[in-house]
Amino acid sequence: MKRAFIFGYFNFPRGSASANYVQYLGEAFRALGYEVVIVSNLNHKELEYDQGKWWKHFKLEEVRFSSNKLLHYIQYNYLMKWYLKRIINQYPSNREDVFVCYSTLKHITRFVRITAKKRDNISIACIVELYAKEDFAESRKNNVYEKYLEVIDREFPQFDLLFPISTYIAKYYENKGPEIQVLPIMADPNECKSKKRENPEKFRFIYPANGKIKDSLGEMLKAIAGLDDDERQKAEFHICGVKEQELRKMLSSGEYDVISNEIVVHSWLQYRELVDLYQEMDFLLLSREVKQMTLANFPSKVPEAMCYGIIPVVSRVGDYTEYYLEDGVDSIIFDGYQADQCKCAIKRALNLDQSERNAMREGALRCVREKFGYVNWCDTISAAMKQAKK
């Protein structure tokens, strides 16, 4: 049977936004007739209820390193190739196999590309970020950025096929060699159960903080603080993946005291707990400044939340507001990212009547089913691979 090997270090399954991306990409490959082999570190908290080397219908090959920090650093940075080679040597060569890389670590990208070439297989790189130099921490900026550029500018152009997550990234790679197919974060609407909330006492907004470096969380908090008292009392804001101390640093003590009764902080949730929370929410709140990092990225939290009938309230930036969401139909889209613009969007959400909310909720479910469902992308993926083989 032909196989799709997906390589990276993304804490599979359910341990990161990257793991969710890989899950739905794997579902698409499986629908195309591939056995899917995930080669990554594993999220054992999610796997504790499962036995063996399988999760759902994915075969798992674990890249496991020492818990000792020094040994982990050495293994991750210098022995990765050896671990991957030991895994892949268990599988006999098959010219129908596909090698997929979801990583910007040079040791992984080079191994995937070179191994695919040796086995006469197609090599695919999934590119979900495009950082600028200023996005890196000052203390390590030059060294880390140079290593990043080495992969972005030298490694990825040598793959047969690129799956950039956005048109912004796709334009960066135009005329650089590989076949290019834009592929957004996908979803599986059938694995989710949405729950309609009729005439709730309070409207519930959720903000999951995965990828928070790209989000303007401080502006969102200031927007909440800027609401009138009666407006705030109509709403409840659930913030996940952030400690309360971090939130307090983003506002003055007086501002935080104003919103403390409307803010519910979930510092950490297991995926099952996040799903339970999603089923009780009405709106997703997300504000992002327009810059290279946000134009290139595609937040997985948007289609993920929409699977549960949650209506996105989002700032206009990148592909998801340009090509996928439709303001007033399945979402509320606002221009700008600062507190005043965000506050107006929250007010607009609070002023929807029950019939309008129901219509937009159905619109969100329809959007995720028709535009993000992995089954809708299978033909596109297949066509791109055929084109790359020519």
The class by helix and strand makeup works out as alpha/beta
Helix content: 40-55%
Report the principal-axis shape: globular
**How many structural domains are formed by the residues?**
2
Q: If classified by CATH, what would the architecture of the largest domain be?
A: 3-Layer(aba) Sandwich
Look up the CATH topology of the largest domain: Rossmann fold
Q: What do we call the CATH homologous superfamily of the largest domain?
A: Glycogen Phosphorylase B
Give average pLDDT, whole number: 93
Number of strands: 14
Strand order across the biggest sheet? 3-4-2-1-5-6-7-8
Question: Would you state the CATH class of the largest domain?
Answer: Alpha Beta
Share of residues in strands: 15-25%
The number of distinct helices, counting runs of at least 4 residues, comes to 18
Distance between termini? 22 Å
Tell me the Rg in angstroms: 22 Å
Sequence stretches where pLDDT stays below 50 over 5 or more residues: none
For the sheet with most strands, the description reads: 8 strands, mixed
Break the fold down into its secondary structure elements and pairings.
Elements: E1 3-8, H1 17-31, E2 35-40, H2 44-47, E3 54-55, E4 58-62, H3 69-78, H4 80-88, E5 98-102, H5 106-118, E6 122-127, H6 141-155, E7 161-164, H7 167-172, E8 179-180, E9 203-208, H8 217-225, H9 229-232, E10 235-240, H10 244-250, H11 253-259, E11 263-266, H12 271-278, E12 283-286, H13 292-296, H14 301-306, E13 311-315, H15 319-324, E14 332-334, H16 339-350, H17 354-372, H18 378-389
Parallel strand pairs: 1-2, 1-5, 2-4, 5-6, 6-7, 7-8, 9-10, 9-12, 10-11, 12-13, 13-14
Antiparallel strand pairs: 3-4
Helix pairs in contact: 5-6, 8-11, 8-16
